[in-house]
């Protein structure tokens, strides 16, 4: 049972580095560097496949390619102890840290930014029946995938360099790995839908769907992802084109958006109907004045198509679009 009797009453009192050092039993203190260790979730892991790294804010995260788990310290503890919520993980971390500091001193080391893992290589493969089964569940055909430059990958490599010196390499291969490409052939994102956390690996900045814009419609719809964008095209609703930001949590910048404001009569936003999606949609409302639509079916547009049907989603969405326009 997880004890809640602790002097520590706020998770922010627990150093993020301590969470990884303690629960992964690291022999090296964390101060901004990245590490690769054997999987904490797969005892048969012979080659280190678990990466410990910092995000853009300097917060430690993990990605375990053996199990597919990933995320922050709360995710780590949730998966390690099979806890059914971040709240329970937080209580455990606070209780364990309180026990630790009752007998030990812990002083976080000065943070020093380190080199990050980046995608260095990949190989495109042929489509197979597993790919067909996955994308067909969202009613997406090969012609739509080809139009938006989605290609299956045999593998991709990630490397870490510092001052031109190669420090580490990771090779990831398996089924259900897809590359998202620009028209010029540049890879901008890797998508691994069967991985539980961190399904996307960003390679380059890119506003998804921009290469496919024809600027022949009056309206532009901003969706939360390329998959939602493609599913919208599958609905066959004419007179409206689509874009998707790099992620739902990022707002398309003004220097990119301004020229589009002159080309379209009106712009709308359709994001996930959960709290993060609604917050992101409201940011567009506040920043640009764009109206947003809430599709009250499944979590997002692509899941709605998968869980219901193209026709039922079209019947539900079309009146919402007409009302907003």
Structure description:
- This protein has 325 residues and is an alpha+beta fold.
- It folds into three domains: 11-101, Zinc finger, CHC2-typedomain (DNA Primase, Chain A, Alpha-Beta Complex); 117-202, no CATH class; 210-324, Dna Topoisomerase Vi A Subunit, Chain: A, domain 2 (3-Layer(aba) Sandwich), CATH 3.40.1360.
- The protein has ten helices and 14 strands.
- Strands 5, 6, 7, 8, 9 and 10 form a six-stranded antiparallel sheet that branches. Strands 1-2-3-4 form a four-stranded antiparallel sheet, covered by helices on one side. The protein has a four-stranded parallel sheet with strand order 12-11-13-14, sandwiched between helices.
- Helix 6 links the parallel strand 11 and strand 12 (240-243).
- The longest helix is centred in the N-terminal third of the chain and has 16 residues, at 86-101.
The termini sit apart by: 54 Å
What structural category do the secondary elements indicate? alpha+beta
Q: Which spans have pLDDT < 50 for at least 5 consecutive residues?
A: 1-6
Kindly report the average pLDDT value. Answer: 89
Question: What are the main properties of this structure?
Answer:
325 residues; alpha+beta; DNA Primase, Chain A; Dna Topoisomerase Vi A Subunit, Chain: A, domain 2; 3 domains; globular; disordered N terminus
């Amino acid at each position: 049972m997880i004890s809640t009797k602790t002097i520590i009453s706020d998770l922010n009192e627990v150093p993020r580095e301590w969470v990884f050092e303690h629960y992964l039993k690291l022999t090296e203190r964390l101060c901004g560097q990245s590490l690769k260790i054997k999987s904490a979730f797969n005892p048969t892991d012979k080659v280190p496949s678990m990466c410990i790294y910092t995000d853009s804010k300097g917060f430690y995260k993990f990605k375990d390619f053996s199990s597919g788990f990933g995320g922050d310290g709360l995710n780590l503890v949730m998966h390690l102890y099979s806890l059914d919520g971040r709240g329970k993980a937080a209580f455990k971390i606070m209780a364990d840290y309180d026990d630790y500091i009752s007998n030990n001193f812990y002083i976080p080391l000065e943070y020093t930014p380190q080199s990050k893992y980046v995608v260095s290589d990949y190989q495109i493969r042929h489509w197979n029946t597993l790919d067909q089964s996955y994308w067909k569940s969202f009613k997406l055909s090969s012609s739509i995938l080809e139009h938006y430059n989605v290609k299956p990958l045999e593998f991709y490599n990630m490397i870490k360099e510092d001052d031109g010196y190669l420090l580490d390499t990771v090779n990831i291969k398996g089924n259900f790995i897809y590359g998202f490409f620009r028209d010029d052939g540049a890879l901008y994102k890797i998508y691994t839908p069967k991985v539980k956390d961190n399904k996307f690996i960003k390679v380059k900045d890119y506003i998804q769907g921009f290469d496919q814009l024809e600027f022949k419609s009056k309206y532009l719809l901003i969706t939360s992802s390329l998959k939602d964008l493609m599913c919208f095209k599958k609905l066959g609703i004419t007179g409206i084109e689509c874009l998707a930001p790099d992620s739902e949590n990022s707002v398309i910048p003004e220097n990119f958006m301004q020229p589009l404001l002159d080309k379209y009569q009106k712009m709308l936003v359709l994001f996930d109907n959960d709290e993060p999606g609604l917050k992101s949609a409201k940011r567009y409302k506040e920043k640009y004045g764009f109206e947003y639509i809430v599709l009250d079916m499944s979590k997002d547009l692509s899941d709605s198509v998968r869980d219901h049907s193209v026709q039922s989603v079209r019947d539900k969405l079309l009146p919402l679009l007409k009302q907003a326009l």
